[in-house]
Write a structure and sequence with these properties.
The longest helix has 13 residues. With 130 residues, this protein is α+β, with helices and mostly antiparallel strands. The two termini are 18 Å apart. The protein has 5 helices and 6 strands; from the N terminus they run βββααββαβαα. A 6-stranded antiparallel sheet has the order 4-5-3-2-1-6. A hairpin with a 4-residue loop joins β2 and β3.
Amino acid sequence: MVNCGHIYFLNLQLAGKPKLLVPAFIVPDGRVRFFVIGTNRTEYQQNTPEVAKHVLALPKKGHETCLTHDSWLACHEVVGGWRIGEIEAVANCYRCPLDAAMVVAVRVLILDTRLHSEIDKAAILSQWPK
């Protein structure tokens, strides 16, 4: 089962390499939309004020089972490329859930964001853990 608010290690075609991904929401047809976890913030993420507040510090502490270093959870956009069945078929791609504080931080951020459509916001908020 694929869960929103949990971390998976999957190939991200957009990046051309495997990345840590967090399902943001699942479309009714089984397509999964992800937030991406990065080691560093891009210049765009740092220098665009509205985007910068959507890139959350993701500490290793509390996520020791899946992170080897402090990272960044980019919530300003969602990316696709996988379906539920495809993810479930990838051995050992599941890493861990986000800790409760990070789940709350994402929910608060998404509730007030102007960067996502109302449809995407509703999907994220209805599918994320509470």
